[in-house]
User: Fold this.
Amino acid sequence: MDYQKVSEPIISELRSILGDSGVVTDPEKMEAYSHDEVPETRWRHLPEVVVKPENTCQVAQVMKLANREKVPVTPRGAGTGLAAGAVPFLGGIVLSLEKMNRIIEVDRQNLVMVVEPGVTTGDVQKCARDHGYLYAGDPCSADSSFIGGNIATNAGGNKAVKYGCTSKHVNGLEVVLPSGEVTTLGGKCVKDVTGYDLLHLIVGSEGTLGIATRIYLKLLPRPRFNAVLMVPFSELSEAIDLVPRLMTQGGIVPTSIEFMDQTCIRSAERFLDRQLPHNTAGAHLIIELDSSTETQLLEEMEQVSGLCGVHGCQEVFVGDNPATQEKIWKPRRVLAESLRVTSPTYCMEDIVVPVSHIPGIVKEINRIADQQGIVIACFGHAGDGNIHATLLKGDLPDDVWEERKGKALDLIYSEVYARGGNLSGEHGIGAKRKEALSKYLDPVKMKTMKAIKLALDPNLVLNPGKIFDVRKEV
Amino acid sequence: MDYQKVSEPIISELRSILGDSGVVTDPEKMEAYSHDEVPETRWRHLPEVVVKPENTCQVAQVMKLANREKVPVTPRGAGTGLAAGAVPFLGGIVLSLEKMNRIIEVDRQNLVMVVEPGVTTGDVQKCARDHGYLYAGDPCSADSSFIGGNIATNAGGNKAVKYGCTSKHVNGLEVVLPSGEVTTLGGKCVKDVTGYDLLHLIVGSEGTLGIATRIYLKLLPRPRFNAVLMVPFSELSEAIDLVPRLMTQGGIVPTSIEFMDQTCIRSAERFLDRQLPHNTAGAHLIIELDSSTETQLLEEMEQVSGLCGVHGCQEVFVGDNPATQEKIWKPRRVLAESLRVTSPTYCMEDIVVPVSHIPGIVKEINRIADQQGIVIACFGHAGDGNIHATLLKGDLPDDVWEERKGKALDLIYSEVYARGGNLSGEHGIGAKRKEALSKYLDPVKMKTMKAIKLALDPNLVLNPGKIFDVRKEV
Assistant:
């Protein structure tokens, strides 16, 4: 694909669409738009221009222009992504949704909130709470991530065990297509089989098939009671073995089941500068429960505690008020940041396996870590089989790190696929896992994805080079 | 598109793939494959041949042959569809999944059931129940419909208010694509953002993008307690007004909220040959609640009864055991059949609106019925805004019926779209609503769907002429 450079006439046209304040060409000001939260410098690239539309019409006009001139457009939320999905590796236009940040409507009759893509997930959650509802999407980056970015990556997070990932909470999208045409998929209806489910094709497509400019989110009645349990286990394997049994033996669907291993416990301790209880434990589980009645909550807590006891836990700490709950959640929330301090160069993975395979895959990752002589911290969303195995460079020389990391990842991915798992549970493929995807994904699925991309974006102008590479001839 | 006829050499090749017992050419035996449950004769067409594969490999071989020879293939489940989606209007091959009817696995560790497409939904439900779980898909045709057909239409049903339509219960699909290639989308992982969500693109695509040959269904812990309430209202509008308030004011998500109007109550009475309680009521609501604890169930029942009282209901009948529950559900379950007896020629619609618009649209439908001089019975899934407005021919002469039906439908659809609604909530477009879809659907969405169809099925051999008409040149 031959792309055009962003020429002076194109800049002029962009200015006429967006006004001067909506067009940024100063390299210093564009630096912030050259990366997401993947730390390594190879995952950075400056755009030729950053545009900041304020409404759908402007987004559509930019896309029409880009499609006509064959200039790549990389849509961008808050830049909290973990797969270099919003990095403009081919230059061109970065289209930042930061100015489209209005909450348009809270529709109490239909339990739908209508927002623009640049609202932070935290503000969506707060607005729902203020109106007495629950918005159940809850990625760890909620305070800073944009809801539009959550849509693009189908973000998961802490409540996905019970409530599912972002796609479950999206009822409708207004979308600007690569052609610059605008359509609305879904809306306020609860059910719809009027043609193909294009809505869920756009969600999770990492900004390669369309740009969401208006988002219809589902609200739920807010559960009135919740509790957070922290359960230390002397062995990681005991903790992990318990996870599938909570749901199958207990018949309980917790809101969250998170785990962190010994390396993570120590890392969080250092970062928070306080001693955690049972800090010599092989692993901590955090289990959150919620319910609309107190009796049900108490019954479930009792059942969970009972199962924990049977599976060898040492003690169950209960957080039954916001202060104690925050104390339990805090080490988990700061984990990614604390690992970054422990080792500024690291590689956070996002593998997912069927829940029953969690014990096996975590054991295998530890074996690979020992074998390759590399530290791999394991934490993540145990309840849905999503493990953020995080490879830490520590003091390793650059070349040794690169070599060991490459070998370890290859071994981990092979084990994941052997267990019916996948590369990414919630962070996406972006640019970072593109090469791995081409190696591990079923070629028929890959071919089908490429055919859809070409059908919707024949000029390959919308976020090209993400998820896969495709040529017009394919 | 120029299709080939099914020639003798093609029949021979089909026999070599499927054996003699897997190939039917006798017109008498093929008659059953010429229609679904849409009553009017214009929605019937004989295939040239019916094939009955027994495994994925045979399905793939048939598709490869059809794709090579440009012969249309119409996949077929149990033929319980309501949109003529499985009728082979262009002749060619009907591919019946009836022999692929094995339950392959109940995976207790991952809460997944793996089945072939020809298992009836009722058998899926029963198998889940026998293992202590809930399969939450529950279309009204469950006893006879195939789970593969549920996937194709993204079937809704009685439990969709709380648990969602079929797509929410599908975790993975093995799919034979129009090319005859086979791929598996999803599987036993709970989360997955490894590339586009092709799984949910296939679900609800009415057999136009792929044939599901193996299905991974989610199982849920089975709620231990449930109750069914029957609530008569003197005015339909009172009943309907209550619906959005149950969820918003009550904070309750019932399993079902069904309604039937006066015409339906009388029709069910005649069919069952017994008097229903409050048979002069303007409408009956059926509300089902389920819970994992008895106390929560009782609390919710009290809340619902309270709200019903405030909104003018006359009395609340409670079904708290299987016998009384069946008594309440029976009139609703026989409704479609009873209307068929009342008027052998009828037209059952499947419109869907945002829940808050139910009162308005039902009032409008009644007004249109009066104005056009036609009987329209209204019933359906009030909890998710899905109304089966059913136009009854009764004694009208054929030409008058056709004219009034056409006018009434046009008026109804216009009102539905004016309220942010859609043509179909759970039955699909098939052939029956194709013309209406082309009139009411956003042209950009239509164009996008056609582009995807052409990308995946460039020879247009898989269930052509359903949902929309498309030519290669588009």
The two ends of chain A are 12 Å apart (CA to CA). The longest strand of chain A covers residues 225-233. Chain A is about 35% helix and 20% strand. Chain A touches chain B through 88 residues (CB under 8 Å).
